[in-house]
Design goal:
Elements (H helix, E strand, L loop, with lengths): L1 E5 L5 E4 L6 E3 L26 H10 L3 E4 L23 E3 L4 E3 L5 H11 L2 E6 L6 H12 L5 H8 L10 E4 L14 H18 L4 E4 L12 H10 L5 E8 L6 H5 L1 H22 L7 E9 L2 H4 L22 H16 L6 E4 L9 E3 L5 E3 L3 H10 L3 E3 L2 E3 L2 E4 L3 E4 L1 E9 L4 E9 L5 E6 L11 E4 L9 H11 E3 L5 E3 L4 E6 L3 E2 L1
Parallel strand pairs: 1-21, 3-4, 3-12, 4-7, 7-8, 8-9, 9-10, 10-11, 11-12
Antiparallel strand pairs: 1-16, 2-15, 5-6, 13-14, 15-19, 17-18, 19-20, 20-26, 21-25, 22-23, 22-26, 24-25
The protein binds alpha-L-arabinofuranose (AHR).
């Protein structure tokens, strides 16, 4: 099979916002307790946070971390988790039916984020709470001394405001599983009032209004239009969430997940722009794709309602990933790069233990899942502007998504027109090798390094040994891969079957 990819540094779609390489830490399962935080662990710092996890987070290249949920936020009382830890009371988190000890709260998280050099993205509870609690939290985080909530923060030991820029107006409020779920009109009105109050406290913040929980929601499209009809002039971004998985051995559809994500983005952009057009507005709402990943939701997750009531950081949705999953994650990231003009913020859900690229054992090691590799390499190499890449490739017919391209590509350009660094990301979704003619007219490329990840056929198995085996057999540095740089203008690459490069 053959494909051709054409790129030129003069043809750019948008600047890559570094916030595209975000992730997510929710009070869910072992994301916080025995995830980022485990006092007594041999690598724990003076604050009780695991150094090994923080180091892997840096290596992953994560820029933003969303917190504290997710579904969790919709029944969260943030005031109960600030101040002296010994005075905090546990509560039953209804989203995940887990007793939350409240040991880690806003200050502990924000200070961890600051120490680790990641930008926090906070969410407010618009399920069981409303305008006052949301505005108070913004004041607690960002206010200067001399008002009630800012002074409480100072009394709790933090003088300087945290300066949190990104704020989610609730989470997945269209989902019937959400605590305090609302219809689009109820939510739109509440989001507009909460957002208004939050921006009155701190006009510099950016607001993310909830879009649909997935494209499969019955209210998809209508929800975006209604919610934006209340909030268009106020908010900056609308959220998108999407999880993909292999169902019933349908490998072809699973490998086509990037195309599903691509169509989903186009539809949300169209919905938002339709609202803008009706208002004759020049403002463009952008997208915060603040939950995306491979998640075996349909095939492995029993459903929130079927979870037993648990305590002590139970193991919930600790999906184990394969090389195949890593190829799909790479394809999804490439899709986000291709929408750099409209998607400035994204978050791989999640960071550690819960559907995550980083896993830990309590009192034990931390390790990388196979999905770690394409994320880390993309976050490292995709810089500057996204290029308008033209791909010519055969198509594959899939059961779920119809015809999808057999090869996908994205590229970024960092530098001036004649001198800079180009990063190219390619996926071969077919079971055969594909020879790609990479055409870059007028541009002499000297090849740097890279990475190739190939899919496997074995079931994924939990544990550092298995992850290391997948890494040894399916993750190859590009120097060792078959790449030929030819004359100025063309480079030929052979993409391994079912691979991300
Ligand atoms: O990331 C896991 C869960 O998925 C989040 O809590 C929720 O927002 C989504 O349904």
């Amino acid at each position: 099979q053959r494909a051709s990819v054409l790129l030129h540094p003069a043809f750019r779609t948008g600047t890559i916002d570094r916030r595209l390489f975000g992730s997510f830490v929710e009070h869910l399962g072992r994301a916080v307790y025995t995830g980022i935080y485990e006092p007594g662990h041999e690598t724990a710092d003076e604050h009780g946070f695991r150094r090994d996890v923080a180091d892997l987070t840096r290596e992953l290249g994560v820029t933003v971390v969303r917190y504290p949920g997710g579904n969790f936020v919709s029944n969260y009382v943030w005031e109960d988790a600030v101040g002296p830890v010994e005075d905090r009371k546990p509560f039953i988190d209804l989203a995940w039916r887990t007793v939350e000890p409240n040991t880690i709260g806003t200050d502990e998280f924000l200070q961890w984020a600051e120490r680790e050099g990641v930008e926090p993205m906070m969410a407010v509870n618009l399920g069981t709470r409303g305008v006052a609690a949301a505005a108070a939290l913004v004041e607690y985080c960002n206010g200067e001394a001399g008002s009630r909530w800012a002074d409480l923060r100072i009394a709790n030991g933090r003088e300087k405001p945290y300066g949190v820029t990104l704020w989610c107006l609730g989470n997945e409020m269209d989902g019937p599983w959400q605590i305090g779920h609302k219809d689009a009109h109820e939510y739109g009105k509440l989001a507009a009032e909460a957002g208004k109050a939050m921006k009155l406290v701190d006009p510099s913040i950016e607001l993310v209004v909830c879009g649909s929980s997935s494209m499969q929601m019955a209210t998809f499209g209508e929800w975006e239009q209604t919610v934006l009809s209340y909030t268009y002039d106020l908010v900056d971004h609308i959220s998108m969430h999407a999880y993909y998985e292999e169902v019933g051995g349908d490998r072809a559809s699973f490998l086509g997940s990037g195309t599903a994500m691509d169509r989903f983005i186009d539809r949300v952009v169209a919905s938002a722009d339709a609202v803008g057009a009706r208002r004759r507005s020049d403002k463009r709402i952008t997208i915060s794709f603040d939950e995306w990943n491979v998640w075996y939701l349909e095939t492995r997750f029993p459903g929130e309602q079927n979870l037993p009531l648990q305590r002590d950081a139970p193991r919930i949705i600790e999906d184990v990933y394969s090389g195949l999953d890593a190829v799909v994650v790479g394809d999804l990231m490439l899709t986000l790069l291709n929408h750099a003009d409209r998607v400035p913020v994204a978050a791989l859900a999640q960071l550690v233990n819960v559907i995550a690229p980083i896993m830990t054992e309590p009192d034990g090691p931390a390790w990388k899942q196979p999905t770690f590799h394409p994320f880390a390499t993309t976050a490292r190499l995709a810089r500057g502007d996204a290029l308008d890449v033209r791909v010519q490739a055969p198509t594959i017919t899939t059961a779920r998504y119809g015809d999808v391209p057999a090869v996908t590509a994205a590229a970024t350009w960092d530098g001036a027109e004649t001198d800079g660094q180009v990063a190219v990301f390619l996926v071969n979704r077919t079971a055969e090798p594909v020879e790609v003619e990479l055409r870059h007219p007028g541009l002499a490329l000297s090849l740097g390094g890279g990475l190739q990840v190939t899919a496997d056929h074995e079931p994924a198995v939990r544990g550092p040994e298995h992850a290391a085996k997948v890494e040894a057999e399916h993750v190859t540095t590009l120097d060792a891969a078959p790449v030929t740089a030819s004359a100025v203008g063309t480079t030929t690459l052979t993409l391994a079957p079912e691979s991300w490069t």
